Amino acid sequence: MRKRILVVPCLLLCHYIYAQNKDSVAAQLTEDSVAVLAEVTVAGKKPFIQLFPDKTVVNVESAVTNTGASLLEVLEKSPGITIDRNGGISLKGRQGVLIMIDGKPAQVSGNDLNNLLSGMTASQVDQIEIMDNPSAKYDAAGNAGIINIKTKKNNRKGFNGNVNLALGQGKFSRTVNSLNINRYSGKVNVFANVNVNLNRNFMRMYALRKYYAEDNTTLLSILDQPSYLTGKAPSQSIKTGVDYYITKKTTLGTVVNFTNFTRRTVGSNVAVWLDQEGKKDSSIVTHNNLRDELKSYAVNLNGKHVFNQNAELTADFDYLGYRIKNQLFFNNVLEGPSGYNDDMFGDIPSTINILTGKADYSETFAKDLKLETGWKSSHIKTNNKAEYFLRTGGTVTPDYGKTNHFLYEENIHAAYASLEKKFEKFTLQGGLRYENTHYNAEQLGNEVRKDSSFSRKYDGVFPNAVISWQVDSLNALTLSAGRRIDRPRFQSLNPFVFVINKYTYQSGNPFFIPQYTWNTELSHSFKNILVTSLSFSYTKDYFSQIFYQDSSGIITYTEGNLDNMKNIGLSVSAQVAPFHWWSLSFEGVVNHKMIKGFVWNTRKASLTQGNININNQFVFPKGWSGELSAFFITNEQELQEVTYPTGQLSFGVGKQIFKNRGTIKFTARDILYTQKMEGFTNFSQSTEYFIIKRDTRAASISFTYRFGKEYKSQPRNTGGAEDEMRRVNTTG
Asked: What predicted TM-score, i.e. pTM, was given to this entire model?
């Protein structure tokens, strides 16, 4: 079933609006004074969406409906971003997005990335940067671009902070709580952010799988699979650090992060076998008990030295570690004379250790010529185990066919240089990045499997160029082009079998190779409020999800390479303020994808698809604010799978209290309950219709209180402490 969402701008409160602005803004302090503010007042509010020539910025806190939401929920309502049923993230209809947190690649994918983003909340995030065509300074990974999630860090002078408490209720309850504090005095800034959250949820899934004879026409049997799962997902995180300003030109800093996410899921599903006429043959009831645990540790050391007003050197050294545990338990019961009652359980731990170091130098010369150059090296080491056991009648035996031990080690070295030259009406920017990759993988054997290993070395050059022309005071044109790479996540190379249910598995692919993409885009900007872009991309060895079926009827989900994918895209972004109390942001994206490859009997697929994102922000008198937002996604297609339209409508209101020190917000997400995952998949000799619904319709109420005193900073020349603080804020 296809549903459409009609979004009508909220004008019901117009009679309540009257012109007032001046009384709500704190009196401006003189530039040469250092004053203590008796109260922390909100002098202005960042727009929810900011459009820049090289990126789109989402100011998370500016959206009322982000109250009580997870980071994954914030991303899915951000412009141009879509999330599939497996947690895969696409940007403007293209998969292969590099997710970065505070400028560092997340380095996990699939369910682990989903758990990481679900364990973070909107209250932890300051901004989301969306970059379609990043410069050579950034990693070349991400054929669709980069999404950089910048977490909060307070850098206000004095001792201050805020506490946020939020309670949400859908079918189940959730709570989000955070505390942010810092002390910035003299040459030292110390800060800490603590988050404690609990999310209860459910997933209702229905799948109807049909099996055919070799002619793929004659129906043999039908598998009807309704399931219902409930889960509890507590998470805790802490981010703390110190910035030390040695001199006005030199800054050192350190940041430590820890995140703990646990998800416990229980439920059952019924697999009902029907004959070709739809008559019941047998049924198997499966009881599930699943536990996912993800712990992440991160330590950053950073420094910056300003040589003069035009030259600076920055350096970062990072350690990032993940400790992942997946525990599975399935009890399968077939009733009847030939029935059985058996158990399958598995223990799948993984460790990931990442070390990176990088240095960047930039200098601006006379006549508006800027040079940027740098180096980065990373070392990644993973250890993945999978142990499966079968229990029948009290006897436990190892399942060596699924048991595995996979070791992976990867080194990437990169160097880049870019130049930017500004003329009266033109800006030219060009860069070149070189990356060298080497990895070794080893699959340890057992009683039924021999040891095996594979390794690969490859390198590549990744150019990037941007030409901007300021046609007149109203219009500007930008032409950009660049080459990018997507490496298979090391977990995607892991040939483990991950059991979803008795008839559905997931597996890695050790023969997975990188995909390479050329991106070009021509965009027009009118008064920086309307941006229209036309893009084309060509991807070689295109990443795709692949499904195959074995002789016993088990469907396995994996990933692999197809020949290529061509994408033609048109996007329109607008940010307008029809009245001083109403601001509107809009983004519409249309893509025509042409996929070429061979899976089973499918060689080509093409589809025109799109998504729309609308956000209305309202500012009312006496500290009131409101939001009405929506997104809508049309059909999306890969070579074997089509997903149907989906979307969401949400609203929220907020009120400042306690002399602007506190804020109360009420939000309602997915009020029409239209956000679902529905689609159709083609396999060899079988097809499957599926629909998944989650606890997306929920109401939340939150309270935020800001405490402490702030000092207005003195203006400083380039290279002063404020510049260092801005630097540390972008990297920490």
From this structure: 0.81
